[in-house]
Amino acid sequence: MQERLRAAEQTVERLREELLRAGVVLPSLRVDLVTVTSEAPYPLVELGRCNLDTAARLATALEGARE
């Protein structure tokens, strides 16, 4: 379980850093600890809720990545 948690936390941190580079902050971004300790094959990432401004910046960042 420790290995899965560590890998999940590293992935969330990587995502947080990349989102920040794109000007997007998701305050609720975290590892879903229930799925780390469950029988599920992979831990889930909780993206959480955000305000409309953050959602718009995320959409813009994704549009830019596609181009």
Tell me about this structure.
With 67 residues, the protein is mostly helical. The chain has three helices and two strands, in the order H-E-H-E-H. The protein has helices spanning 2-21, 33-37, 52-66; strands at residues 30-31, 45-46. Strands 1-2 form a two-stranded antiparallel sheet. The longest helix has 20 residues, at 2-21. It is elongated, with a radius of gyration of 13 Å. The N and C termini lie far apart (39 Å). The model has no long low-confidence stretch (mean pLDDT 88).
Give a quick precis of the structure.
The chain is mostly helical.
List keywords for this structure.
2 strands; 67 residues; mainly alpha; 3 helices
Q: Strand fraction band? A: 5-15%
Provide the low-confidence segments as ranges. Answer: none
Give the strand order, joined by hyphens, for the main sheet: 1-2
Gyration radius, rounded:
13 Å
Q: How many β strands by DSSP?
A: 2
Q: How do the helices and strands line up, and which of them pair or pack?
A:
Blueprint: H1 2-21, E1 30-31, H2 33-37, E2 45-46, H3 52-66
Antiparallel strand pairs: 1-2
